[in-house]
Amino acid sequence: MSRAELKKVVVVEKIISGHMTNAEGAAALGLSCRQMVRLKKKYLTEGGAAALAHRNRGRKPAHALADETRDRVATLYSQQYAGSNNCHFAELLSEREALELSPSSVRRILLAKGMKQAKQRRRNKAHQPRERRSQAGELWQIDATPYAWLEDRASAFALHAAIDDATGIVVGAVFRPTECREGYSLVMQQGIKKYGIPLGLYSDRHTIFRSPNEPLTVEQELAGETKPLSDFGKAMDELCITHIKALTPQAKGRIERLWGTLQDRLVIELRLLDINTMEEANAALPGLLQKHNHKFALKPKNDECAYMKLDSSIRLDYVFTTREQRTLGQGNTLSYANKTYTFAKPSPYRLDAKTVVEVRQTLSGEVIVWHDNTAIKLLEIAKPVRKQKQEIKKASSAQPRKPTQAHPWKTTEQQNQNKRTTRRISFQDAMYSQHNSYAEALW
């Protein structure tokens, strides 16, 4: 019996023995006198103290889950949904298995089977939260994170994403092999085409977003020099988006917390969709983001949006590009990436030789000249094919000559000595005869 039930037994026994009145017993138990009389009657007619115990003790509740359901939930978690948290697991059971269970019920079932959460929760550090912006489109936060999104089915790759600070909506996302400018550019294009141009962008201090030479000295600032921008920074400047670069990860906490949610849920979703490549993951990503936004998006404080409408004359392909300066040559030609280009059509602008122009290359590889807010398309000039010089056949090495038997190399040392002696005697005789002839001429 419980402690409250034992207290009832003691009070009823004191009333029956005459040590307490019904009013005193009712006040002690917090009941009415009528209820006190009922308890005393039940004690006397139904077998004493056992009659005051709750009638449902030892009985299985009518709404309790069947053992088959509990076993099925544990089997599904161990086989298909391993690694998901209790809330996500309850959602997946409702979507895919037609089992309507609360997260607390799922937790009790798994704990009873000895299955704990794969990712233990830990106490977060104390950081003062920054208040959300009041309007949608007032500020986006952008970042990328490398992770094993497909577990052991493929190598790890990076997810690039941007989230609206006011609503928590993921405005764009894309998978890329590594963190790169192309990934951030694709995310921005997705969000701008769907929602509009935001007023501000919050990012980290990666060199994709800022030039290493961005800080200026006092002398440079007094001289009127402007800060050098990266290619991505120039695109933000062209779209009039205020670019803020955070000094710590906590400053852009919205996007950092998004990674924890996606790494917890997206891995399970991709596994259930039987996705094994990055290309397949990119194809399924829009539907998964729509599901995520439907569940986690918030209503902003101000219903009015702060998005700027994209001008129809602006082509985002020509905004998110690499940019370099080139000097025009004779005939409006220029060199770029070891290739020679010229204008595809006669330019309406008078551009003389030695004119410095800006060359842009889009994400698709198209190369254009950007002049006076207008794209001038280029045409690659094929390099002349030069005839290869005919190879001159070199004379082959002569065959080794075999010396004759009379060759000095073939004679013995004694023979060579005799030949040298004979030549020396002949020379001496010649000199002696020449001397005699000269003496006779003198006489």
UniProtKB/TrEMBL annotation:
GO terms for biological process: DNA integration. It comes from the Bacteria. InterPro entries: Integrase_cat-core (IPR001584), ISNCY_transpos (IPR047797). Residues 115-136, 390-420 are annotated as: Disordered. Residues 116-127 have a biased composition (Basic residues). Residues 125-314 form the Integrase catalytic domain. Coiled coil: none annotated. This is Integrase catalytic domain-containing protein. It comes from Paenibacillus solanacearum.
